[in-house]
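> example.struct
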C-alpha cells in the first residue's frame, strides 16, 4: 500500500499542493522518483538515504518508488527531502502517522539528518491554509516565516530525529510567532539635509501618492542623500501588503534570518551594471527581479543614464501596469511590482551642466547622453525636480531641517485619505488611478480647467502626461486636506513637470 504525504512547491510566488506517494516493496533494490521531477529533486535520493541511516533508522534494501503528484507540474528544489524520508519510514512501519493528511511537511535534509532552511515556505503555508491544511512541519530556521501567517500551526524542528519523535509522541505545542525588531533598523533622517526645500517638497508629494520621481543635478549636490532618506517617511505596511511583500522575499531567498512578516517598505538600489533579467525577473527558475523585490516600497536607480538603454526600456511596461508577466519554456508567472521609482542623474557626462561649474561637454554629447531617456519612458515619470549645489550659508549656519517624523505624519495622513477614497476601487494610491478614476476623483473648477487646457495645447502634451498632472494635483490637495482640486494645486503640479528645459512634459 502506497503512503501519501502532503507537501507543496511554488511557481513564481504562488504555492502548489503536491502529494508525495511512497511505495516500498520486495524486488531488486532501487530508488526511483517520478512525477516530472527536476535534477535537484532526483538528487534528494542520496540525501534521504544518508539522513535516514545517520539518524538511527533503517533504510530498506527494497524497491522504492516515489511519485510526486500531480505529474504535470514541474517539481524543483530540495524541500521534498523531508516528506520523502517520512513516507519511507511510514511505509517500512518504523513510525505510525495515521493523521498525516492533516499535516503539510517540507524541508531539506543534510547527510547527517539536520534540516536546512528552504525557500518559499511563506506562499506554501498560505496555499496550505487555502486547502484547509493548518498544521505545518518545517525546518527551525523557517519557523518565524511559517508561524507569522494567521491560522497556521507551525511545528519547527532541527533534524529528522526530532520530527519522528514528534510524530510518535505529539509532545510539542505550535511555534509561537514573536515579532522581532531587526527590521526596525536606523533610517537616515531628512533633518540631516541642509536646505533643498523644493526637492524635499517634491519627495514628500511623491511619497504621499506613490509617484515616480526623477532628481537631476550636479555631482555632490545631494541626490543620493535625499533618495536614501525616503524610506524614513513611508508608513509601515498593513497586514495584506506585508503578506504580498513577504511572499516575494520568501521565494527569492531574501527573507532576513529570524524574520517573519516584513512590515517595513522595501528599498532596493541595484547597480547600473544590472541586466534586464536581474531587474525585471526571469531566469531558469523564474525568480522575481529587483522591481518585484521593491513591491510596495522604493526602487532607487542611481545614475540612471549609466544604465543600458535596453534595461531602461524594459521598465516601461512594469511602471505602467504595476505587474510583470514572464513567459519561458519552464512556464509563465506574473509578479507584482507596484513600487515607487526614484531616479537620480547628472545632465551630462561631466555632470556640470546647469551648475555653477563649467561644463566640458559638447551639445552633441549632452543630447546623446540624455537620449537614453526616451519620451515614452519620461511619460511614466510623475515628478521632475532639480537640485542645486548647497549654498555655503547653509553649511555656515548649520541648523537641522524638518525631521522625517513630521513629514511622515503628513504622508501617512494623505495616504489614509487615499485608502478611504479607494476602498471600493481595488487600488491603494493616487498614482494607480486609471482614466475613469481620474474623471471621478479629479474634478476641476473652471479656472483650473482653463489653466491645464492652455498648457496641454501650447506644449502638445500626451494624454498620459495630462493624467499625471491631475494625479499629482490630487495628491497635493490630499496633503493640504482639500476635497476639491484648486488652481494652486494645478500650478504646483505643473512646476514638477519640467525637465532640463522650461518645457512641460
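> example.seq
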Amino acid at each position: 500500500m502506497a503512503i501519501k504525504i502532503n507537501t507543496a512547491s511554488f511557481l513564481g510566488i504562488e504555492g502548489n499542493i503536491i502529494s508525495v506517494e511512497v511505495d516500498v516493496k520486495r524486488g531488486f533494490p532501487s530508488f526511483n522518483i517520478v512525477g516530472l521531477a527536476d535534477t535537484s529533486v532526483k538528487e534528494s535520493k542520496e540525501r534521504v538515504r544518508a539522513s535516514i541511516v545517520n539518524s538511527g533508522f533503517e533504510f530498506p534494501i527494497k524497491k522504492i518508488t516515489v511519485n510526486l503528484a500531480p505529474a504535470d507540474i514541474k517539481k524543483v528544489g530540495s524541500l521534498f527531502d523531508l516528506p520523502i524520508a517520512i513516507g519511507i519510514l511510514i511505509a517500512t512501519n518504523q513510525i505510525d502517522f495515521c493523521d498525516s493528511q492533516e499535516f503539510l511537511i517540507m524541508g531539506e535534509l543534510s547527510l547527517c539528518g539536520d534540516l536546512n532552511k528552504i525557500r518559499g515556505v511563506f506562499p506554501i503555508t498560505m496555499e496550505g491554509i487555502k486547502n484547509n491544511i493548518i498544521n505545518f512541519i518545517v525546518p527551525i530556521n523557517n519557523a518565524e516565516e511559517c508561524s507569522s501567517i494567521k491560522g497556521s500551526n507551525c511545528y519547527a524542528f532541527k533534524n529528522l530525529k526530532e520530527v519522528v519523535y514528534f510524530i510518535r509522541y505529539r509532545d510539542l505545542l505550535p511555534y509561537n510567532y514573536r515579532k522581532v525588531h531587526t527590521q526596525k533598523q536606523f533610517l537616515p533622517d531628512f533633518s540631516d539635509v541642509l536646505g533643498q526645500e523644493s526637492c524635499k517638497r517634491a519627495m514628500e508629494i511623491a511619497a504621499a501618492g506613490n509617484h515616480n520621481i526623477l532628481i537631476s543635478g550636479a555631482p555632490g549636490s545631494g541626490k543620493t542623500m535625499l533618495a536614501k532618506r525616503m524610506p524614513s517617511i513611508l508608513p509601515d505596511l498593513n497586514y495584506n501588503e506585508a503578506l504580498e511583500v513577504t511572499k516575494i522575499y520568501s521565494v527569492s531567498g531574501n527573507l532576513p534570518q529570524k524574520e517573519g512578516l516584513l512590515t517595513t517598505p522595501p528599498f532596493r538600489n541595484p547597480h547600473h551594471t544590472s541586466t534586464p533579467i536581474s531587474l525585471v525577473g526571469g531566469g531558469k527558475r523564474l525568480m522575481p527581479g529587483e522591481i518585484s523585490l521593491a513591491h510596495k516600497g522604493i526602487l532607487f536607480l542611481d545614475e540612471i543614464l549609466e544604465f543600458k538603454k535596453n534595461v531602461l526600456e524594459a521598465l516601461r511596461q512594469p511602471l505602467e501596469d504595476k505587474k510583470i508577466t514572464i513567459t519561458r519554456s519552464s512556464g509563465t508567472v506574473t509578479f507584482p511590482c507596484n513600487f515607487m521609482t526614484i531616479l537620480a542623474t547628472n545632465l551630462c557626462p561631466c555632470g556640470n551642466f546647469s551648475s555653477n561649474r563649467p561644463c566640458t561637454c559638447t551639445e552633441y554629447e549632452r543630447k546623446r547622453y540624455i537620449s537614453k531617456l526616451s519620451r515614452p519612458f519620461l511619460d511614466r515619470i510623475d515628478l521632475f525636480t532639480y537640485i542645486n549645489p548647497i549654498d555655503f550659508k547653509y553649511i555656515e549656519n548649520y541648523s537641522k531641517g524638518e525631521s522625517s517624523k513630521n513629514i511622515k505624519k503628513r504622508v501617512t495622513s494623505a495616504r489614509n485619505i487615499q485608502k478611504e477614497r479607494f476602498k471600493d476601487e481595488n487600488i491603494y494610491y493616487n498614482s494607480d488611478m486609471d482614466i475613469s478614476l481620474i474623471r471621478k476623483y479629479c474634478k476641476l473648477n473652471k479656472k483650473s480647467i482653463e489653466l491645464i487646457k492652455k498648457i496641454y495645447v501650447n506644449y502638445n502634451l500626451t494624454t498620459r502626461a495630462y493624467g499625471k498632472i491631475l494625479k499629482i494635483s490630487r495628491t497635493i490637495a490630499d496633503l493640504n486636506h482639500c476635497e476639491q482640486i484648486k488652481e494652486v494645486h494645478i500650478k504646483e503640479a505643473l512646476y514638477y513637470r519640467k525637465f532640463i528645459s522650461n518645457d512641460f512634459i
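> remarks
The chain has a mean pLDDT of 90.
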